[in-house]
Amino acid sequence: MGIESSMSSQEAIHTLSEVVNGRHESEPVEEISPVAVFEDQASPTSDSAPCDASPASPTASNNALANSVSGLPEFDMSYLDGTSQVSDIGEILLDLSASSAADILPSNYDPASSELFPSLFPSISSYPPSLDSTSKLALQFFIDHTTQLILCEKPGISNIWRGVVLQLAHSDELVMDGILAAGSVHMLPNITQDSTMMRQPNSYLSKALKGVKRELEDWRKNDVKTATQTSRLMLVMSLLTIRELLAGNQFGTLDVHLRGIQPIARVLASQYNGKDTEVAANLLELNACLQFISCLRFLGNDKRDLYSLLSMIQEGRLELLKSQETFGTSFGCTLDLLEMLPALHRFYSSRELEISSGRDLGCTSAFRSLLNKISLWQPAPLDFDVSVHRHTGAWWNEVGGYVGDLGKTIWQDAQRPSTATLANQQAMVSSALVYKNVFILFLYSAYLRIPADFHRLSSAVEPYVDESLGYLEEISGGTWANACWWVTIVIGSFTSTVEQRARLQQILQSSTFHVPLVDSGLKLLTSIWEAPERNFGFQGIFNYSELNGSICFG
What we know:
Residues 1-65 are annotated as: Disordered. By secondary structure, the protein is mostly helical. It has helices at 9-20, 35-38, 60-68, 90-97, 133-150, 164-171, 173-187, 195-221, 227-246, 254-271, 278-294, 304-314, 317-322, 335-338, 341-357, 363-376, 386-398, 404-415, 419-447, 454-475, 479-482, 485-494, 498-509, 516-529, 537-548. The model is unreliable at 1-10, 19-125 and 382-403 (pLDDT under 50).
């Protein structure tokens, strides 16, 4: 999933436009099924099987998994085509019909506090008058649930999806369409069987896609592309990508969304001036993070993701992101580690050639060197600059900011990070350590690849799996668990005992992932756990993707 380095912006945009053209302009928007958007589209991966465009549903393998590990959650995705029996939430809709602006705010929102939502929500005095009751509900689900999954909590940085993005949506219909398309993924399992309500989520997606098509065409034609136009376009395309992620890559079009974003991201980065561009910084980091995660698997002969990643690195976009105050809302403290990923893929290719040719290409030495480098890596947490505090303290003392030891102690206590901040920092570090272990699992899996090495591989990865499960249990239920969705699935693919799989099941049950994305991950794990023992880990994931044509890395 990605964009070939040789593909032009125009070609990439045309790819997404062709997908949108899968809908007929003459059809009423509310009557269009989301499947029609992507039907008859060839897989962009030349070596993989065509994507299955039919809605997913619980399978026998899901049931077998539920029986083997008691309490494992099952997710009925048939509601995505409007056929499911779903719970009645008429009371919620009645409440919404008489709601005020305060009703759409998160339950922990304090108007007197600027820590999370600095002076943004007060400008949203009411729902946009164009929103019906179902759309208001989708907006509420976006605020209360979807926004918690997009960015991680970095102390001192507001969540743009709950702030400035909502402010933009209040006056921008296309941004609102993107928000409703994303929020409806959380809403769908909870709406009634009312036929109009069941069709509206499809309408949001259709309307947003058509709007993006028009904007892409205008953007492509303009010789001078303003930063505002580019940011707006990337924002809506990012919302559609998020929608596809949360839906578990149901239609196999996640790669198309990412491919369409790349030329926009490239132009946006070139326009970036570091001023009043909090949204741009967050969007660029989110996109870059997805590019890295899409490569955290065996790629086989299709290296387009890797080429896209290398192109992004060579263009200097990562250095740009590192210089921003908002940096870390998607990457946390893992970027230095993730930048080793191209080296792991080079090792994978060398080892593959070494095995097939029977020649010694120095892979044993390279394995030891990479293992040592990854093992020595330690995440650098958020830096609370003590020197700045000392300098500020001296200044306060000179102007009488505090008097005596007691006053100084009170001031110093006020400067220390809060307990919540420290806990969040520790969760960020724990999530980075999970990534570190997954990199080691990748390296071992790339090296010990012949059948005779199976038991050596199983023995080598066991302690890393157990340690990672411990870290995942620590951060379960928090926002940093969201950043670990894909590596959680990778760790799960290496589990071999009932106890390990039960722990993983508990992690998923207590997570904030209750969207179809969970179902897609469980289907993948079920396939691996029920397969012969040698079909596990990264190789098992690769085999699954080859068989099914697509996966969702979350």
